[in-house]
Amino acid sequence: MNETSGIVGEPVVRFNNVVKRIGRKTIIEGLTLDVPPGQVFGFLGPNGSGKTTTIRMMTGLMAPSAGDILVCGRSITREFEQAISQVGAIVENPEMYGFLSGYRNLQQYARMRADVPKERIDEVVRFMGLEHRIRDKVSTYSLGMRQRLGVAQAILHRPKLLILDEPTNGLDPQGIRELRDYLRELTRLEGTTVFVSSHLLSEMELMCDTVAIIQAGRLIDVRELHGETDLEAAVEVAFEVDRPEEALRLFGDGAGEIRESRLIVKTNREGIAEANRRLVQAGIAVYGIRMLTRSLEDQFLEMTGGGHIV
Ligand SMILES: Nc1ncnc2c1ncn2[C@@H]1O[C@H](COP(=O)(O)OP(=O)(O)OP(=O)(O)O)[C@@H](O)[C@H]1O
């Protein structure tokens, strides 16, 4: 099994002022972005914002007009072989033979890469939770299973970076969560960094540790997501209380602050109930509780001037 990639924090992908022009049109405008190791990293943007173009450049299908993309420190333009050997990708629909079993498909693909032993095929089948159906014809697979078989194929050579273009397309929330869980496991076991594109914020929130948001070829934000949903993430909560200073002392150093006579606590969903209990037990009157942190969706709408992501 592989060790996790390189030095902690060393980016697996580095976009260095990447520009792509096609004809007179600038499709990507100076993209500078680091993708940290060991994450499921989302690349989010509305249709036509430049996601596929970026992925095509990352996989060497298109050359940048200016700037460079480094994969594990190797330039995709100047050191293509070294860089691409670290990449597994599903860019368009993975080529699968429906009349063959999942296993035969993987064998077929492994044969093209001389260095993939049988044990590795068995391992990726386990990683992607396909062992019970791997001898069945691919034509009988659900979309989610086909996606997972595609991932299994793409990781046969143990890439450090797995790139998936819109992998959640057509999957239901359950299918998205399953895919996410398998990708997380892959990240944990092999240190693989996963780069996924999507135009759906809600799906990225289910799937990713961090999202980079692009619009019209420009990076507009990079944001860590802290949990499955906003309610599980840390949120700022304002408690309207009768004695704010005294209330603040119930929360350790740095855990709260006073703003406009209200006690502000940064916590998660469970923490809100707990904080409320603590206040009431200390005899402090609580007149109101309000969440201050807006959802990523609200923030996204604000950043894009109210334009919708889908
Ligand atoms: N070969 C090309 N020639 C001219 N324009 C192109 C070409 N390829 C892409 N574009 C344009 O570049 C922009 C970005 O396209 P791209 O496919 O990268 O976006 P995307 O974010 O992946 O969108 P989608 O989710 O719809 O696939 C679009 O306006 C598209 O029309």
TrEMBL record:
Domain of life: Bacteria
Alphabetical list of PROSITE patterns matching this protein: ABC_TRANSPORTER_1, ABC_TRANSPORTER_2
UniProt-recorded Gene Ontology molecular function terms: ATP binding
Pfam families from the UniProt entry: ABC_tran
SMART domains: AAA
Domain spans labelled ABC transporter: 13-241
Keyword Cell membrane recorded: no
Keywords associated with the record: ATP-binding, Nucleotide-binding, Transport
Entry's family note: Belongs to the ABC transporter superfamily.
Protein name per UniProt: ABC transporter ATP-binding protein
Species whose genome carries this gene: Saccharibacillus alkalitolerans
